[in-house]
Write a structure and sequence with these properties.
Elements: H1 2-20, H2 23-40, H3 50-71, H4 78-81, H5 93-112, H6 115-126, H7 131-138, H8 142-160
Helix pairs in contact: 1-2, 1-3, 1-6, 2-3, 3-7, 5-8, 6-8, 7-8
Length: 164
């Protein structure tokens, strides 16, 4: 179990962030994921499907956390959403502001995608999964994965038109 956690913890954290877009939720959701994994490790029948199994647990935990957060809204401190200006590699203030605005617009656009398009998009473009891996994790054939990715890109392009 310890080896599974060590090898997959960074990836699980990025899956959670990709699903929620909220850094403030990552630690709590990751903890829930590892508790679920510990409780259900005996349910994993095919060790070759470990990543798909972990993904489904992380996905469900992220969805549960978002549902809970929607029922209990709270303000997210600005420091948690934006990097400090010192971390911008010496760019000028206008350039830093433009980069932040573009990044924020893209993040909002990704978050606004319906889940059936957002999930494969995040897995493909933020996690670098293959179509086969995405299909296995989401229970889809590769053609459906490709169709959903095309639709996600089109929706993002439409959402960002004139903003970026």
């Amino acid at each position: 179990m310890e080896r599974i956690v060590q090898e997959n913890a960074p990836w699980i954290r990025s899956v959670i962030y990709g699903m929620t877009g909220r850094r403030d939720l990552v630690d709590d959701v990751a903890q829930q994921v590892w508790i679920s994994v510990w409780r259900r490790i005996a349910d994993l029948q095919d060790p070759g499907r470990l990543r798909s199994w972990l993904y489904s647990i992380a996905r469900n935990a992220a969805i549960d956390a978002l549902d809970a957060e929607r029922r209990r809204p709270r303000a997210v401190p600005v420091e948690e959403r934006q990097p400090a200006a010192d971390d911008q590699g010496g760019k000028g203030p206008v350039s830093v502001l433009e980069s932040r605005e573009v990044g924020a617009a893209l993040q909002r656009a990704i978050e606004s995608l319906p889940a059936i398009y957002r999930e494969p998009f995040v897995l493909r473009h933020l996690e670098n999964w293959s179509y086969a891996e995405i299909g296995a994790a989401l229970g889809l054939i590769e053609d459906t994965v490709e169709t959903r990715l095309v639709r996600a890109r089109r929706l993002l392009r439409e959402a960002l038109e004139g903003r970026v």
